[in-house]
Specification:
The complex is a heterodimer.
Chain A: H1 11-17, E1 28-32, E2 36-41, H2 47-57, E3 68-70, E4 74-79, E5 82-87, H3 91-96, E6 105-108, E7 113-119, H4 123-128, E8 145-150, E9 153-161, E10 165-171, H5 172-185, E11 192-196
Parallel strand pairs in A: 1-11
Antiparallel strand pairs in A: 1-7, 2-5, 2-6, 3-4, 4-5, 7-10, 8-9, 9-10
Chain B: E1 3-6, E2 10-13, E3 18-22, H1 36-44, E4 52-58, E5 66-72, E6 78-83, H2 86-93
Antiparallel strand pairs in B: 1-2, 3-4, 4-5, 5-6
The chains are: A alpha+beta, B alpha+beta.
């Protein structure tokens, strides 16, 4: 069931792009396949819920708004009662650790999302062409994430390091649109696509 | 373009939000006792205030939370935004 869908969003897009790859270091886009997404909902006033989630994932749940935690997984804050876990690990052993005694809701959304990593000197310039969020160096800091718009698509944007590297998590059905948007708008920066399994 | 301060996410562009109309409308406690006119009034009739107006907005692109916005409908100035909870709504009743 999990990980059996090998036809990833953007596969066709990448295959067409391979013929035109450049060697630019200024801006790269890495499309991640074979990663899993879990949506978790629960109350922040319920300390049992927080303790249990942190024990299951062995990682802090980010309680501050618009931040994410990094460990074995990436856990993003989505809403006051909602988080997104992005992980390379197999979901089955994780899900088996969830206790039915705890009041929480967990949904496997692996089929619904795609992640792109936008990296390089011009990443902020490229994003600011179509993102209404202020992603200036002093406004959008490492460890912050935000759900916002890019072009006409809704995305989850997160800054992970100072290269800078942005994680862009987008609905699978919007992935091709975002890919094309980044390609067209990144043209002037010599954008370079790669595919990482 | 308005910058609206989401009580959770901070200042965001107007395009990230959707409008939810007049705030603090209470569902009648005994709907069965209402005549059609009063029920229609509850369902459909909304104030069209000139000046300070309490509204509900949703941060639909971001955290998807409903919150309260006090806005001047003439100048579009946003006086305050706050989280939607019973305390916030009850304080409006007493004014």
């Amino acid at each position: 069931m999990l990980n059996e869908n090998k036809n990833y969003a953007l596969d066709d897009f990448i295959n067409e792009e391979k013929s035109s790859l450049s060697s630019s270091q200024g801006l790269g886009i890495n499309i991640r396949a074979e990663i899993n997404f879990l949506n978790i909902r629960g109350s922040i006033n319920d300390s049992d819920f927080i303790k249990h989630v942190e024990a299951v994932f062995q990682q802090a749940l980010p309680l501050d708004f618009n931040t994410f935690s990094v460990g074995e997984h990436h856990i993003y804050w989505l809403a006051p009662d909602e988080w997104l876990v992005v992980t390379e690990h197999d979901l089955k052993p994780i899900l088996q650790k969830i206790s039915p005694e705890i009041d929480l809701y967990i949904t496997n959304q692996t089929g619904g999302y795609t992640q792109l990593i936008l990296q390089g000197d011009y990443a902020r310039s490229l994003l600011s062409k179509g993102c209404t969020l202020d992603i200036g160096e002093k406004k959008f800091l490492i460890g912050q994430c935000a759900q916002t718009g890019l072009g006409k698509a809704g995305i989850l944007l997160a800054l992970t390091d100072s290269k800078p590297s942005f994680n862009i998590i987008v609905r699978r059905s919007f992935a091709e649109y975002v890919g094309l948007w980044l390609k067209q708008c990144g043209n002037e920066f010599g954008v370079n696509f790669t595919h990482k399994h | 373009m308005l910058l609206i301060k989401c009580p959770w996410c901070g200042e965001r562009d107007e395009t990230e939000f959707s409008y939810g109309g007049e705030a603090a409308i209470k569902r009648p406690l005994k709907p069965k006792d209402l005549n059609d006119k009063d029920w229609a009034d509850y369902l459909f009739m909304r104030k069209n205030t000139r000046g300070l107006f309490l509204e509900q907005w949703n941060h639909s692109v971001g955290c998807r939370q409903w919150f309260l916005v006090e806005r001047n409908t003439v100048t579009y100035e946003i006086i305050s935004t706050k989280r939607m909870n019973s305390d916030a709504l009850n304080s409006e009743d007493s004014q």
